[in-house]
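Throughout this chapter, every protein is written as a compact record of paired, labelled lines. The reader may check this reading against the record printed directly beneath this paragraph:
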Amino acid sequence: MTVEPPVQRRDRTQYLYIAVIAAVILGIAVGLVFPQFGKELKPLGTGFVNLIKMMISPIIFCTIVLGVGSVAKAAKVGKVGGLAIGYFLIMSTVALAVGLVVGNILKPGTGLHITASIAKQGQSQVIESQSTTEFLIGIIPTTLVSAFTSGQILQTLLVALLAGFALQKLGTKGEPIRRGVENIQRWIFRILAMIMWAAPVGAFGAMAAVVGGSGWAALKGLLIIMVGFYITCLLFVFVILGGLMWLVTKLSVFKLFRYLGREFLLILSTSSSESALPRLIAKMEHLGVSKPVVGITVPTGYSFNLDGTAIYLTMASLFIADALDKPLSIGEQISLLVFMIIASKGAAGVTGAGLATLAGGLSAHRPELVDGVGFIVGIDRFMSEARALTNFAGNSIATVLVGTWTNEIDREQVDRVLAGEDPFDEATLLDDHAAKPEAEPAT
């Protein structure tokens, strides 16, 4: 009997990417040529933002519950898991802090003055007038279900943390629940993927409205944040991560990236760091890092070591706040950083997840800023490659560092491979590619 080969799903996200770029260009043209008409297109961007806001609570809940479970699972492995988790938490925090520092220096949103056309009035005053006691009480939902319907993201975060730790305590008995949450997460992200096909419409409306109201100043602000984000990612990877790797291992980050050159090209073409996951596992093992270290560090890092996403979240938050003439205070920036550290853990690499996390952070701290996400969606796809490349670079360096700290790395093999004396055999990936399901595009 002849066995039919499995049907490969075509990656149609490339068409979405092209459509968003076209929509942004068209929105800019409409905003410049017909500014009044462009402003009237604001509801298109607002509608798309509302669709994203609709998904915030379920995404936060699923990612935190599964993320807490992943931490426990990795920690049980022992020294390797503990080192990996500790390193991921520290570097993600550093990445978030770097994003805040650069965002405060560049201030790309300053001078856009789009508050009147986008921001909702009066909400910040209500929040600022709350006492600490009222704020803490407000975090506790009336019922377990009301956390998902009240629109209070901190309530969802509290319930998710409680559910995640309870799932840990159940041990093996909680495995069916964990699988159920995983299935719900897949369902939620499938809905989000459907919503993202409306991104071109939202990007067109938001861009036309903002350019119509702010003119060339809007384009200048967008250009500053994009260039600043790319430069920040480069400095973070080559100076901070590369410097750390050199201090610990005396290995050149340039040689490591040359060895991973094909993977970087794959990520650049797909905007997805997950598309290179099987190849990274195989290449790290070939490099000389032991299989246990690679098997723990790489998959965990894909959920917990998203340095590029961390930089993006903080820089985008500051950009939106400045553009709406409602800058975040130092205290709000620090609390936002803490929220992002928690909320970004366990986030799957799905188109739109970064926007949902960004909207969730703003909603938790300054709800009147959430509508500004419609402005950032126009350039989100332009920055997705930098996020994916930075995430991948961070995970490859983390694998080498954890292998070194645990003495689970063959330095002679590393030297041979990085010197080009032991090239990687591409044929070893064939079975992995056949067995692995198609990865969703990362953001």
